[in-house]
Design goal:
This protein is an alpha/beta fold. The protein has 12 helices and 10 strands. β4, α3 and β5 form a beta-alpha-beta unit. α10 runs parallel beside α11. Bound molecules: 5'-O-[(R)-(carboxyoxy)(hydroxy)phosphoryl]adenosine and zinc ion.
Length: 347
């Protein structure tokens, strides 16, 4: 018999993502983004995001069904992002998912977006091993996890104490006068610069701070250091070496992510590292973490960049893992959990 057909719905931020997964096979993945409507404000405007989800939901669902060549009636289970994210945006996806689950008489899984960023890797790189370290780096989160079962046993090892990696990139992007979100622009600019030009601080990476926070991160210090550097040059009327700033800043952030991830692998004996989240589209992170993995005997798994940023496939993938593991579905009255706890794989 065929494995269950799982519909995945993601509406936690600016992307309306709808996907269909059977087992670990991605059958359709359609994303509509409202980023263009937010860019001129220099940040996501929650009300605009909610309205956009509402407007594009039905056509996006239709497009996904067409792409997979299936009908609504073929769906066996529905997975939807329950949190974390913007409460209004989450509510649109949750309401639609609940209505579909009732109408189609299929189970509903309200899932954790952050864990979804890891789960999507199974669609790209096959079944997970029994034990691995997961690094999730996005616009709102930077987390290290120890995973024994993506559906049942995920333990948080560390998180950022202030800014997320993507958030720090977006803020430095603004300082450099780049369009929002700055992450991809800094990535591009970095390739023309010297990563060793400026020695920006590596947060929680030395001495007592490292000992106290082996798996926690802090990126507000490096962001402030970049701001001060730009201010001093501007005040003295000197031109800004933007490519060198971008490259040196990227290096400082990426180096900490890589070092701490490898340390977590060594300490736990994990020989696989799975990387996910919007920031894992970053080319320097992909390059450095793969190289360090080879040096440490750790297999590094990162999905293609389009599966790193928010999409429906990640939610369908986690829903599929939950159904495969026989985890009980969520209640139909689950709320949008804007600050969903990372110990909760599903609501
Ligand atoms: O996971 P995601 O799509 O949304 C959240 O859940 O936050 O991540 C978006 C973040 C943004 O901060 C964006 O600037 C960053 O990922 N990002 C990048 C790159 N592509 C996206 N940061 C650095 N380099 C990139 N290539
Ligand atoms: Zn995300």
């Amino acid at each position: 018999m065929d494995e269950p057909l799982v519909l995945g719905i993601e509406t936690s931020c600016d992307e309306t993502g709808i996907a269909l997964v059977r087992g670990r096979r991605l059958l359709a993945d359609v994303t509509a983004s409202s980023m263009e409507d937010h860019a001129r404000f220099g940040g996501i405007i929650p009300e605009i995001a909610s309205r956009a989800h509402l407007e594009v939901f039905a056509p996006t669902l239709d497009a996904a069904l067409t792409q997979a060549e299936v009908d609504l009636g073929d769906i066996d289970a529905i997975a939807v992002t329950a949190g974390p994210g913007l409460v209004g945006a989450l509510t649109v996806g949750l309401s639609a998912a609940k209505a579909l689950a009732v109408g189609l008489e299929v189970p509903l899984y309200g899932v954790n977006h952050i864990i979804g960023h890891l789960a999507v890797d199974e669609l790209a790189n096959g079944a997970f091993p029994d034990h691995f370290i997961g690094l999730v780096v996005s616009g709102g989160h930077t987390n290290l996890f120890e995973v024994r079962d993506i559906a049942r046993d995920v333990t948080e090892l560390g998180h950022t104490l202030d800014d997320a990696a993507g958030e720090a990139f977006d803020k430095v992007g603004r300082l450099l006068g780049l369009p929002y979100p700055g992450g991809p622009h800094i990535d591009r600019l970095s390739k023309q610069g010297d990563p060793a030009a400026i020695n920006f601080p590596r947060g929680l990476s030395r001495g007592r701070e490292l000992a106290r926070h082996p798996y926690n991160f802090s990126f507000s210090g490096v962001k402030t250091a970049v701001a001060r550097y730009i201010e001093e040059l501007t005040d003295s009327g000197k031109p800004l070496p933007t490519a060198d700033i971008a490259a040196s800043f990227s290096e400082a952030v990426v180096e900490v992510l890589v070092t701490k991830s490898m340390a977590a692998c060594t300490a736990t004996g994990a020989t696989t590292l799975v990387v996910g989240g919007g920031f894992s589209a970053n080319s320097r992170l992909r390059e450095l973490i793969t190289a360090h993995g080879e040096a440490h005997g750790v297999q590094v798994r990162i999905p293609a960049p389009r599966y790193c940023t928010d999409n429906g496939a990640m939610i369908a993938a986690l829903g599929s893992a939950l159904t495969r593991a026989g985890v009980a579905p969520s209640a139909l009255d689950i709320p949008a959990a804007s600050a969903m706890d990372l110990s909760q794989i599903r609501a």
